[in-house]
From TrEMBL, chain A:
<dbReference type="Pfam" id="PF00005">
    <property type="entry name" value="ABC_tran"/>
</dbReference>
<dbReference type="Pfam" id="PF08352">
    <property type="entry name" value="oligo_HPY"/>
</dbReference>
<protein>
    <submittedName>
        <fullName>ATP-binding cassette domain-containing protein</fullName>
    </submittedName>
</protein>
<dbReference type="GO" id="GO:0016887">
    <property type="term" value="F:ATP hydrolysis activity"/>
</dbReference>
<dbReference type="GO" id="GO:0005524">
    <property type="term" value="F:ATP binding"/>
</dbReference>
<keyword id="KW-0472">Membrane</keyword>
<keyword id="KW-0547">Nucleotide-binding</keyword>
<dbReference type="InterPro" id="IPR050388">
    <property type="entry name" value="ABC_Ni/Peptide_Import"/>
</dbReference>
<comment type="similarity">
    <text>Belongs to the ABC transporter superfamily.</text>
</comment>
Automatic annotation (TrEMBL), chain B:
<feature type="transmembrane region" description="Helical">
    <location>
        <begin position="174"/>
        <end position="191"/>
    </location>
</feature>
<feature type="transmembrane region" description="Helical">
    <location>
        <begin position="101"/>
        <end position="122"/>
    </location>
</feature>
<comment type="similarity">
    <text>Belongs to the binding-protein-dependent transport system permease family.</text>
</comment>
<dbReference type="InterPro" id="IPR045621">
    <property type="entry name" value="BPD_transp_1_N"/>
</dbReference>
<keyword id="KW-1003">Cell membrane</keyword>
<dbReference type="InterPro" id="IPR000515">
    <property type="entry name" value="MetI-like"/>
</dbReference>
<feature type="transmembrane region" description="Helical">
    <location>
        <begin position="275"/>
        <end position="301"/>
    </location>
</feature>
<keyword id="KW-0813">Transport</keyword>
<keyword id="KW-0472">Membrane</keyword>
Length: 321, 310, 328
């Protein structure tokens, strides 16, 4: 059953120097209880997609397309209506746990305010629920740390609090924007396991946004590879890793450090991400693509394929190196 | 918190003693003094006068007596130029006056400046915002000593609304112009700082987190944004208080309020060293107390600073 | 995941200047090269800044007025029909009615309460205010940046000591300095400048300190240190040029501040002494007589003061916009 459906989403930012085309014609679905990964380099527009779902884009952003949830288009909802969806239906986990918690409020206040708003819970009832969730994200000695401020917790603990915050109202979908980037590797694994448990135990769908393919491999059913605001490839994660069909995906997979690789060489993709100040006139990856032919620079490749997997490349899979 | 206050007070004592010692020697060693006039006093009378004020003692004895009197008897000694008055009398008469309009001036600056800044930030680039910016530039250029005459010109001479000076026991008509003239420059700056601070806070990730919770914008402003917005304003008050003390000297002189500033300037003219020294100490202590207040207010808002104080 | 830049492309990669068998010689060349690159960067930086500044209309108008005021201070005296102390006995006692600005009797700006020519006095006041403001302002920032550079470069105890002095200076209301100093040493223009430097020695200190703290850890300073350059040479050749813009901005802020300070204390009568005068002293005289209706005595000096301050404000604003990388 489709929970959320992003249809032809484009996002532009108006700047004094012209429009930035951050997201170009992106479509995908998330089913209830499913985990979908959005993968791309920084600046590929992946975070903007998540922000647009909850209407949290910067004021200079303009959107087109639709984001359907529960029969309504989230992009056209009024702030008042949107506020009822936020946290209650769709919650978000932000990238940096250091700065996404308010340093001037106790964590209890930051947690119970959404309960107060969406569930009408106050006082002891709210505290009970807060403790429940803090236990669920494995914060030790939570009862005695309710009155503590964010700076009194470690980075990993803070990210757990941020996750707890997202879980409070039992949302149907959690948008996790690079939930582990700011953390140590060991803590990263713990947090990913936590998210996995949450999905299994509570049936929450997760949109995982990351630049780290390693994170995706273990935990997501479907993966979208984004480049310059455009979907390059969309496939079941296993299949994507086994046989990537887009040159960009191949480049990405080759760039992941592999301890089995004897030479230990890192295969970086040469060149720079393209300038998003111009509308697309060809494949955005063409300038860096080893397989590019002349046509790649002139035709914006459509996303084609079957229901299971699609890719945006005009060259047949067999011909690719 | 109490312990912190105590520690700070102990830490500032050396500074104040240093100030006293330097000023003390400066004034004893300086050429001339309150008793040097065009017509020199006969030696006998001079000796008499010197003895009366204890100036015949060796310097270190004088200094010791002076410090002892201040710290144990809270006595700043007699005025050299005003025969029957002690420095304590001068302070008792003038300090409440300066403190009164100074207090109202601070209230004026904060109670008006912060809301004005918030409005300007929420209506960024509106006409209101531009008016605020213009006002801020205006106040940079018209400091209190230009503003005060202009105000007297308008409100007293042209419209006859407010008295152009005097104190009259601190009736409100007499307090308004000193308080406003003293505060206006800082009001504009407080508004400007509040504006940019709020704009920065509203762009902070934790405000986005608050929005993602579905909170109304008004709730976000009061519950999440206000405290961090106030922090730069509070730190700014530290230099402002120092400037306002200097400004109060001008206000006392210009509006003839009878505050201590007038005595301070008069003392500079008559080289009344004990008054200069006494008031300089008073001003320094006042600065210290206000700064301490600023730091405590900051700690009250910022939990990180608060835990640092312990 | 991918790093879009291959390692070879990173310009500040240490591998760029490999330590080879040729040893110090090679290193030296590399450092020279790096220094040359810095210079090129900074040259285009200043050219860019100048272009941006010239394009700033308010700043250019400000410059225009400041130049006018300077010309007035320098050559205005030529047109004065009286000197600053001369009392026009013919106007004494009827200043309110006949002492106003007048083209026929040569009192272009009228006369003051004592019948002295206000034009000559405004020229004199402008000279003193500008002199005190610019000399004290520029010197203060120079001293402040030197101390800031020392504190930032050496850190440790030196830094603690300088910062303690900084905090103490800032926590004493400056009027105390003026009253105490002037009561003991008198009130000449030189004394005035000295006290103002004494009070303002902290100008720009904090910002240069922070700037040096970040600069001293940059590669080109490390390179210079490895070459055995002395601290003084490193500061003068590598650090100072890279924070010149901070100093320029701060100077442009400090000068109007100094003029303001001078005017306030002269207004209070603990500044410049008669027959010398300054904007503040003139405004004070004008303000004390405005009840008699002799408004020109307040308006002329106030106008000069205000135009000068507005102009300097916009020049400072323009410099900040042109030079501060954060503002762009």
């Amino acid at each position: 059953m489709t929970l959320l459906s992003v249809e032809n989403l484009s996002i532009r930012f108006g700047t004094p120097d012209g429009d930035v085309h951050a997201v170009n014609d992106v479509s995908f679905d998330i089913a209830a209880g499913e985990t979908v990964a959005l993968v791309g380099e920084s600046g590929s527009g992946k975070s903007q997609i998540a922000l647009s779902i909850l209407g949290l884009l910067a004021p200079n952003a303009r959107t087109s397309g639709r984001i359907m949830y529960g029969g309504r288009d989230l992009l056209s909802l009024k702030r008042r209506e949107l506020n009822k969806v936020r946290a209650k239906e769709i919650a978000m986990i932000f990238q940096d746990p250091m700065s996404s918690l308010n340093p001037y409020m106790t964590i209890e206040r930051q947690l119970n305010e959404s309960l107060e708003l969406h569930e009408g819970l106050r006082g002891a009832a709210a505290r009970k629920r807060v403790l429940e969730v803090l236990d669920a994200v494995q914060i030790p000695d939570a009862r005695n740390r309710l009155r503590a401020y964010p700076h009194e917790f470690s980075g990993g603990m803070r990210q757990r609090i941020v996750i707890a915050m997202a879980l409070l109202c039992n949302p149907k979908l959690i948008l996790a924007d690079e939930p582990t980037t700011a953390l140590d590797v060991t803590v990263q694994a713990q947090i990913m396991r936590l998210l996995d448990d949450i999905r299994r135990d509570m049936g929450t769908a997760i949109l995982l946004i990351t630049h780290d393919l390693g994170v995706v491999a273990g935990s997501c059913e479907n993966t979208l590879v984004l480049y310059s605001g455009k979907v390059m490839e969309h496939a079941p994660t296993r299949a994507l890793f086994a046989e990537p069909q887009h040159p960009y995906t191949r480049g990405l997979l080759r760039a992941v450090p592999n301890i089995h690789d004897e030479a230990g060489a890192l295969h970086a993709i040469p060149g720079q991400p393209p300038n998003t100040m111009r509308a697309l006139t060809g494949c955005p990856f063409a300038p860096r693509c080893v397989d590019a032919i002349a046509a790649c620079h002139q035709i914006v490749p459509p996303l084609e394929g079957d229901a299971l997997r699609q890719r945006a490349c005009i060259r047949p899979v067999e011909e690719l190196t | 918190m109490l312990q912190y206050t105590f520690r700070r007070t102990l830490a500032v004592l050396p500074t104040i003693i240093c100030l006293i010692v330097i000023c003390f020697f400066l004034m004893r060693l300086a050429p001339g003094g309150p008793f040097t006039s065009e017509r020199p006093l006969p030696p006998a009378i001079m000796a008499n006068v010197l003895e009366r004020y204890g100036l015949d003692q060796p310097l270190h004895v004088q200094l010791w007596t002076y410090l002892k009197n201040i710290f144990f008897h809270f006595d700043f000694g007699p005025s050299f130029s005003q025969r029957d008055r002690d420095v304590n009398d001068i302070i008792a008469a003038g300090f409440p006056v300066t403190l009164t309009y100074g207090f109202w001036s601070a209230v004026f600056v904060l109670a008006l400046g912060i809301p004005l800044g918030i409005i300007a930030a929420l209506r960024q680039n509106s006409l209101w915002d531009y008016i605020m910016t213009g006002f801020a530039i205006f106040s940079q250029i018209f400091p209190n000593f230009v503003l005060a005459p202009l105000m007297v010109l308008t409100f007293t001479l042209a419209w006859g609304l407010l008295p152009g000076g005097g104190w009259n026991g601190g009736q409100w008509e007499y307090v308004i112009m000193p308080a406003v003239a003293l505060g206006t420059s800082y009001l504009a700056n407080v508004a400007r700082i509040t504006r940019s601070s709020l704009l920065e806070v509203l762009g902070a990730p934790y405000i986005r987190t608050a929005r993602a919770k579905g909170l109304a914008e008004r709730t976000i402003l009061w519950r999440h944004a206000l405290k961090p917005t106030l922090l730069p304003v509070i730190s700014y008050m530290s230099p402002v208080f120092v400037y306002m003390i200097t400004g109060s000297v001008f206000i006392d002189v210009f509006f003839s309020t009878g505050g201590i500033g007038q005595s301070f300037i008069d003392a500079a003219y008559t080289r009344d060293y004990s008054v200069i020294l006494g008031l300089a100490i008073l001003y320094s202590v006042l600065t210290f107390v206000l700064n301490l207040g600023v730091d405590l207010a900051y700690a009250a808002i910022d939990p990180k600073v608060r835990s640092g104080l312990k | 995941m991918t790093n879009p830049q291959t390692p070879e492309q990173t310009p500040d990669n240490p591998e760029h200047h490999p330590r080879t068998m040729f040893g110090a010689r090679r290193q030296h060349e590399a450092a020279e090269l790096a220094a040359a690159e810095e210079m090129i960067v900074s040259r285009s930086f200043w050219a860019d800044a100048r272009r941006r500044f010239v394009k700033n209309r308010m700043a250019m108008i400000g410059c225009f007025f400041v130049v006018l005021i300077f010309l007035f201070a320098a050559f205005g005296g030529v047109f004065a029909q009286y000197n600053i102390e001369e009392i026009d006995w013919s106007l004494l006692g009827k200043v309110e009615t006949e002492g106003g600005p007048n083209l026929t009797n040569g009192h272009w700006f009228g006369v003051d309460e004592l019948g002295r020519d206000l034009y000559a006095r405004v020229v004199q006041g402008t000279r003193v205010s500008l002199l005190v403001g610019f000399v004290a302002g520029i010197t203060s920032v120079m001293i402040g940046s030197i101390f800031g550079a020392i504190a930032g470069y050496y850190g440790g105890r030196t830094d603690q000591f300088i910062m303690a002095a900084y905090n103490i200076t800032l926590s004493i209301p400056y009027i105390i300095f003026f009253v105490v100093w002037q009561a003991f040493f008198g009130r000449s223009v030189t004394q005035m400048v000295l006290v103002m430097i004494l009070i303002n020695w902290t100008a720009g200190l904090l910002i240069t300190r922070g700037q040096v703290m970040t600069l001293k850890n940059r590669e080109f300073v490390d390179a210079a240190r490895m070459l055995g350059l002395s601290d003084l040479k490193i500061i003068a050749r590598h650090i100072l040029p890279n924070m010149l813009w901070v100093i320029v901005i701060y100077t442009s802020i400090t000068i109007p501040d100094a003029i303001m300070m001078e005017s306030l204390v002269s207004f209070l009568g603990v500044g410049i002494q008669e027959p010398q005068t300054s904007w503040g002293a003139l405004i004070s005289e004008g303000a004390s007589t405005m009840t008699y209706g002799t408004l020109w005595q307040l308006m002329f000096p106030a106008l000069f003061f205000a135009v000068n301050q507005i102009s300097l404000y916009y020049i400072g604003d323009g410099l900040r916009d042109a030079l501060d990388p954060k503002e762009r």
